Predict the 3D structure of the following.
Amino acid sequence: MNLLGIDSHCHLQDPVFDADREEVFKRAHGQGLGLIVPGYDMESSAQAIRLAHTHEAMWALVGVHPHDAKTFTESDQVRLQDWIHDDPVIGIGEIGLDYHYMNSPKEVQRAVFRQQAEMARGMNVPISVHSREAEEDTVAILRELPEIRGVLHCFSGSQAFATQLLDLGFYLSFAGPISFKSAHDLRDLVKWAPMNRILIETDAPYLSPVPWRGQRNEPSRVIRVAEIVAAQKNFSTQKVFDQVMSNTISVFHVAS
Ligand SMILES: [Zn+2]
């Protein structure tokens, strides 16, 4: 299969796509885009697997988001572990810490993040990490797990945080916010980040890039994200897609 690029993080199983999911998929697939669909709880993880089984160039991640950490059980852990053996499942995600919304207590978020990340490391699969207002604790937990591979999804943090993640071997994934008018610092960070460590994503249905800001986002718009990375790097969009594809293969082992 000859892909132009990959949206490394889009929630195509989200109910907002119930009415037109196949058209949304075709708009991306028709342009040569592969899709990585992460879960955010057990149900959405199961849906991601079902979608990946029935669509070309689509892969699933399974995991429980920090918002739902308080619901995570031992049997969920066992189920995640079983799912990893399923063919289209390529890693654990999205997992992490969110101290902004604080839908689950901090200690619970940390424990559930650590537990899922440890499992990923033990099974030699990558993780897709969500981190909001929790840079220090995110790095602390990742440091406990040397050699874990993964990506910080929808990166919008500080340069210090980015540096620590790169030192840990992590990749930075950029999304629609790099197109926002006021996001000068974030665009500087794109310019600064090493091209061989960048991934791109939409985080659809959230965070539509300009000029669709505020609308439902969809995977085909990862092209807009690539264009902005290209402008920052002074590369062609094609070159960005090519490099990002090889980065995505390095971290997620897709396209095999
Ligand atoms: Zn997400």
Summary: The chain is about 40% helix and 15% strand. The first strand starts at residue 5 and ends at 7. The radius of gyration is 17 Å. Residues 5-252 form a domain with the TIM Barrel fold (CATH 3.20.20.140).
